[in-house]
Amino acid sequence: MKKILLLIITGISSVVVAQKPTGVSGFVIDSLTLKPVEFATVAIMDLSVNKLINGTVCDENGKFSIPKVDKGNYQLIVSFVGYTTKKIIFRITDKGRETSVGPIILGPSVKMLHEVVVEGQKALVEEKVDRTIYNAEQDATTKGGDASDVLKRVPMLTVDVDGNVSLRGSANVKVLINNKPSTISANSVADALKQIPADMIKTVEVITSPSSKYDAEGSAGIINIVLKKNTLEGRFFNSDITAGSRGSNVGVNGSYRKGKMGFSLGAFVRPTYNIVGDFANQQTTYIPNTTTNSTDTSYNSQSAHTRNDGLQGTYTFVWDYDINKNNSLGVSLRYGQRNLNSYQDHLLTNTLYRDTLTRSLQNIKSTNVGDNIDASLTYTRKFSKKDREFNLLGIYSRSNQTNGYVINTVQESDQSILKRNRNDNPGYTQEMIAQADYQEPIKENQLLEFGGKATMRQVQSDYSYYVANGPTGAYTFDPSHASTGFNYNQSISAGYLSYTATVNEYTLKAGSRYEYTDIHAHFSGQPNINIPSYGVVVPSINLSRKLKDGKLIKISYNKRIQRPSLRDLNPNLQASNPKNATQGNPNLKPEYTQLVEVAYKTNIGNATVNLSTFMRYNTNDIQPARIFRHDTIISISQNIGTEANYGVSIFVSIPVSDRFTINGGTDTYYRILKNNSNDPVLNAKMQGLTPNFRMFGNYNFSNGLSFQFFGSYQGRSYNLQGYRTSPITHSVSVKKSVLNKNGSISLGLDNFVTPAYQVHSVSNSAYLVQNTTNTLYNFIVKASFSYKIGKVARDTKKQLNEDDSKDN
Length: 808
What we know:
Elements: H1 2-18, E1 24-30, E2 41-46, E3 51-57, E4 63-66, E5 72-79, E6 86-92, E7 99-106, H2 110-120, E8 125-127, E9 132-134, H3 147-151, E10 157-159, E11 165-167, E12 173-177, H4 183-187, H5 189-194, E13 201-207, E14 221-227, E15 232-244, E16 248-258, E17 261-289, E18 294-322, E19 327-353, E20 356-382, E21 389-410, E22 417-443, E23 446-469, E24 476-477, E25 484-503, E26 506-523, E27 528-529, E28 534-546, E29 552-562, H6 566-569, E30 581-583, E31 591-604, E32 607-629, E33 632-655, E34 660-674, E35 685-700, E36 705-714, E37 717-719, E38 722-724, E39 728-738, E40 743-750, E41 756-764, E42 768-777, E43 780-789, E44 792-794, H7 796-803
Parallel strand pairs: 1-7, 12-14, 30-33
Antiparallel strand pairs: 1-4, 2-3, 2-5, 5-6, 8-9, 9-13, 10-11, 13-14, 15-16, 15-43, 15-44, 16-17, 17-18, 17-42, 18-19, 19-20, 20-21, 21-22, 22-23, 23-24, 23-25, 25-26, 26-27, 26-28, 28-29, 29-31, 31-32, 32-33, 33-34, 34-35, 35-36, 36-39, 37-38, 38-41, 39-40, 40-43, 41-42
């Protein structure tokens, strides 16, 4: 009976396809049920070059059609999860007529189904020749958070309570999003991370020894956050809602792909509230008295209640179009908004100076308001020769921001306003990039890459200070502070050459990059600041060897440059707390770094162990230093001298059972800082050990229920004049799949054992001894709901192009 049905199906298909022009068509059915196999993958291999050239997926009726196939000999490869892959060889002799391959019958295969499931479970951490990859999509413990929650779990990275990221103890790290820079991350990495939902992150690449193809900037290395990309045929929609005691998230994204074209839209809104704490500061200042040629001592104590709130949003649009099998275009737009506020309520300051005690009570509000846009256009040209590729990239990025503060000095008795001070600091950061890259395979196992890049950055900061009397008095310019504008233009021209070779188990990736930096800076109405142009050659070499049983060892050396960040350059005096002010330094020079690293990956039983050791040495090291100016201590970045770091990183992933996995490790380093000053009074040196630990895991129960936990500890972080402590953080959550696994519900608790924790900062210098304590109340209760709809299948052609790239 089955044979008769197959003959009837074959005859019908021949009549149907005979009425259609050109191409290859057919349909796929199940050998047992004789029903169509929906969304089976169909690919065509050109036997003359032994290369996949095109592909598609079957529709709801199991039918497929691939147009515009030239004459020649081909192999059709049909596969689907749970079925044995079917291969059919056929020949096209007449380009003007469509070729039918008839019905293709797939038989079930339990073995194949098992293999696919195993292959789909990527390791949480992977080692490549020049980077460590953290597969964030394999980690369910960050549900409802942002990018900073993901980065806390990544080996070698630490994230402090303010959201600032450091790599092996250094904050001089270049952050990319989908391999592209953004002005929002240039201004503030912490702000950039808050605008990226954790659920949209696919991987985080920690590139400690970047190849010459990457910018030389980032003395500690590069963090590349790769967002999830739609490679599915059809329609898809996903929504995520999180409500918490200190913040909420609302995220939606949808996509559509048909044939050569696909696009996606996304929106993410994050309000934060009820973030409260306490602030205390004890400060002894030694003030030179030029009249008596002696030193006066000032004693200060401060205390205040703190709170923070804000609203951030990000909106994205991505469009890509396959012009043909060798040419493609991509457009990406990303728009973000932020309105962040921080408060110091009832800041009480007591000052004892020359036997006179003074008191003041103030209420302070600091603001960070702005928006940013990132736009990019990508053109990719592939060739018939495997791995030959040409890419063009254009980027426009701009971040508008207004930072400032308002200080209300009040009467202690009745809280009436005596005086008001205000600082306004509007400005923008703009960046334009043009980049061209070409890669040419020399032989089957050798690849040559070269290219060029031009970057133009513009920074403008207009700052002014005002003072007013009473609650309603008009603001006038504050004569104690200069108000002006600062303009900073930086252009970077770069070229690189890189060579990659794989011989047996060895892989070598070596190259060199040259960058020339030209800077023009001036204050409004004043001549240019004399900042000389400079060039730098940045070599890099990475060597790895694959050992037995999946083991890997690699060694690397590279040189890096850290140009002063835009925040470090901005001369606006941030003195919302006059006893704890900060200011940028336009005269900063670049910092240079040399890094040597040895890494090893092995398996111990079922556990995977990633181990690395490193030595990093910096000259012209950029560090914040506290200096005395008039009656105020100001923190200002300076090129202090040298910094050496020696450290080890260990990450272990243990699949305890099919249901239970534990991950964790340590990043521990020893830092030595020297300012090399010839003045014995100002000469300073600081050194210390900084251990960091993390552990997290996941347990899957039956019926779609799972349990997640996370905990971390960060040791003291040292700077030239002191150190800062960090708290122990922890969280637990449970997740339940609902609505036929199309939705999920999560409940979580953060810092429930220690709802209040303290961060201590200690500074010591010839002019200052300061102890600051910030108490944070960060116990969080949160609930999340996620739901997805849409019937989609893998876009085979897009997947073939991705799998064919050298990086995969």
